[in-house]
Design a protein that fits this description.
298 residues, alpha/beta, two-stranded parallel ribbon, binds zinc ion
Length: 298
């Protein structure tokens, strides 16, 4: 199988892959409760493996995955209170939004400085962070030559000609478990699914997990790969048409962009809200109370 993972490629292979198709994929996720049947890193494992499959099929290079993502605060804490509950250890690899999104800016800087024509940023972790990712990329695109597109992987999970019309995204249920099963079979263990839903939440397991299937997962991966290939082509064409200047080149460029363009808008990001629509505050005695309130970083 052709190697597309940046960290596992020799310099001559990277140069060849870049010359053939100057597209870079970034994959985001974290270690987070995904039921007793999935390994913790599902979100990143999934996004990275889909990006690798897309690059193998359509060209491009896949950057090292980022296993640290937004959790433990605001609406994420409220979600965890319900879906994870009072566990002694959540095994999360969480960072706050201002850390995650500044890292994304540095990743985009690397892409622009290297001269990539297009970058596709895929988050396998949801909540509203993916809408903030789109907001962030809209804010910084005018200052970046590389053509950018950010998405949650489920946006690409649209059935093709053989689809069942019911893909989309979920949390550790039919969709995510099927995808991980197809991509990394050693990271899914159906024998760990509890016999009944009594005593839920079961470490944030999706209640329809018993409908998961490796073959459905394989079909979903194929759908996402096809979608991503078309998106990469679209971005490359946009670059060819406009020939933008690569301009986010230095660390100082990133810091100035962050201070002048991103930080003034940060408090509007959905990940920066204490509560999402229809949520209630985290009770004081909960293990999720500690980081719930979002500090003002605007
Ligand atoms: Zn997930």
């Amino acid at each position: 199988m052709r190697e597309v993972r940046w960290e596992r490629m020799f310099p001559d292979e990277l140069e060849q892959a870049f010359a053939a198709c100057p597209v870079v994929y970034f994959a985001y996720g974290l270690c987070e409760p995904h039921g007793p049947q999935n390994t913790l890193g599902l979100d990143s494992l999934k996004a990275h493996a889909i990006a690798c499959a897309a690059a193998r099929a359509h060209g491009g290079i896949v950057a090292p995955p980022d296993y640290w993502h937004i959790h433990e605060l605001g609406g994420y804490a409220v979600w965890a209170e319900r879906a994870v509950g009072q566990v002694p250890r959540s095994w999360l690899t969480a960072v706050p939004p201002w850390v995650h999104f500044k890292n994304v800016c540095y990743h985009v800087r690397a892409a622009d400085a290297l001269g990539f024509h297009a970058a596709i940023l895929i988050t396998g972790h949801y909540g509203p962070n993916w809408r903030d990712l789109k907001t962030l990329l809209d804010l910084i695109q005018p200052h970046v030559g590389t053509r950018l597109y950010g998405l949650p992987d489920f946006e690409a999970n649209v059935p093709g000609f053989d689809g069942d019309g019911a893909s989309g995204g979920d949390h550790a249920g039919r969709v995510e478990t099927s995808l991980l099963w197809a991509l990394h079979p050693e990271c899914v263990d159906r024998s760990r699914v509890p016999a009944s839903d009594g005593g839920a939440p079961h470490f944030a397991m999706g209640s329809n997990v018993r409908e998961a299937s490796r073959r459905i997962g394989e079909r979903m991966v194929a759908d996402e790969v096809r979608w991503l290939g078309a998106k990469a082509r679209e971005l490359l064409d946009a670059y060819e048409r406009t020939r933008p200047r690569h301009q986010l080149l230095t660390f100082e460029d990133v810091e100035v962009l962050w201070e002048t363009v991103v930080r003034p808008r940060l408090k509007e990001f959905e990940s920066m809200q204490d509560l999402w629509p229809n949520q209630q505050p985290v009770p004081e005695g909960s293990v999720w109370h500690r980081n719930w309130r979002v500090p003002n970083r605007g």
